[in-house]
Give the backbone structure.
Amino acid sequence: MNYKSRITTSVEFIPIHRDSSAANHELRIRNLPVFWFFFFMISTSSFSQESCELNKLKVSELKNGLNESNLLSSIATIDSLFLLKVNCFSEFEKSTGYNDLSELVYKLNPSSELIYSLSEKAIKNGFPNAVLLEFSQNQWLRKVSPSDYNRLELLSDSLFFAKYPNANVNLAKTIRSMVREDQRIRLEHRNTNQSDTIRCDSLLFEMKKTDDFNELLLDSLFTIYGYPGYSLVGCEHNSCYLIFQHMGTEFQVKEIHLLEEAIDKQELYQDIHPLIDKVLYKKYGVTLYGTHYSNQPPEKELKVINTYLTLLNLKLQ
């Protein structure tokens, strides 16, 4: 008898002679293997879910407790948990997890071999965009091991264009180059000791030049393509949004409607409200949705809200 043939049940009515107080028939269940099969499946599912929660907790504990003495063993354990056949971790969780580890390695005990290995795994698991290559650990890798950095860049490009075969390759590369420079300067400024005023001022000056140049490029791109959305440049549609955050106020006021239109068409996956608040606060000193830090409460009068939305050429409420 094979396994499947055993997973059956037979239900029949058997006449039973009893006294008048007894029922004329009795429902008798002869076999119960189906019950135990489903009991096993439910138990296994619950066990797997509980096991996954424990694995995620373990990864979090290992990352929080990472130090120079346990660096290699902790990374090896996390790596083994990510590679378990039981699919507890999404690609996003794996990719960001590997990137977090490479950043921790850089802070604790920089190792070009480890940083390359972890960044490679982050990219292969679909890290959201190429900005990963501009993070501090990979910029350090670029200096100490240019060949490893170039390999990461080639891997990132090949996976990107394989995933988005209909993308405008040249446009996507242009936007990627823009966002890399945008982030490179900001990350370097963030990691520079603020007491080094000469270096900080130099980076701020460089940042302003880059933003001005990017604004000219974005102006041209918007004129030609509108907002470069998902169907045109793949994941770099978010890079345009990031660059737009750092543009001049007047440019933002003029062009923010393009971002709203792209969101409506599902060409951009972002929340427009924080950007509206940011632009309005810079231009008029007001916020509509309470998403941007200011001392003023969000506007509640619909007529006033629509007045400001009109100024930005946005849809009225």
